[in-house]
């Protein structure tokens, strides 16, 4: 398990399954320690290149992903890979979009959608998931599964 994050490191969220995912803000310096194997970057414009594998989800600040199906696919990949690899999720500040994505990962990990925001706020960042529509997005997130309409 040398390929995983230090659970005590800043920004590392432990999901109920034990998977570790690092959330961070890209406007802050890169934290000390190992590099991620996969970075998921939630930005309105394409992020700068990084020396590790990366996915860009077009996601304007304070809003929702431009392509929700593609976002769900990327988040599912991040969740799957977090079982054995270092995965980080980041936006500009590391709070709203990052918190929303981490809450979606918690849903994939088995946390009920209506509890996922509270889970991430308790275990990652107290202000995570900043807007009512981001909270609603998490509550309705199903990871792209074919769920019948409500």
What is the CA–CA distance across the termini? 40 Å
- Physical arrangement of strands within the biggest beta sheet: 1-2-5-3-4
Which fold name is given in CATH as the topology? Protein-Tyrosine Phosphatase, Chain A
Mean pLDDT rating:
92
Helix coverage percent: 25-40%
Tell me the series of helices and strands, N- to C-terminal.
EEEEHEHHH
Could you say which overall geometry the principal axes of the C-alpha atoms support?
globular
CATH class: Alpha Beta
CATH superfamily: Protein tyrosine phosphatase superfamily
> Beta-strand level of the residues, as a percent range?
15-25%
Question: Could you explain the architecture of this structure?
Answer:
- Pfam families: PTP-SAK (PF22784).
- This is Protein phosphatase.
- InterPro entries: Prot-tyrosine_phosphatase-like, PTP-SAK, Tyr_Pase_dom.
- Residues 66-121 form the Tyrosine specific protein phosphatases domain.
- It comes from Nonomuraea rhodomycinica.
- With 150 residues, the chain is an alpha/beta fold.
- The chain has a single domain (12-140), classed as Protein-Tyrosine Phosphatase, Chain A.
- Helices cover 31% and strands 17% of the residues.
- The chain contains four helices and five strands.
- A five-stranded mixed sheet has the order 1-2-5-3-4, with helices on one face.
- Strand 1 (12-14) and strand 2 form a beta hairpin.
- Helix 1 (68-81) crosses helix 2.
- The chain starts with 11 loop residues before the first strand and ends in a 10-residue tail after the last helix.
- The model is unreliable at 146-150 (pLDDT under 50).
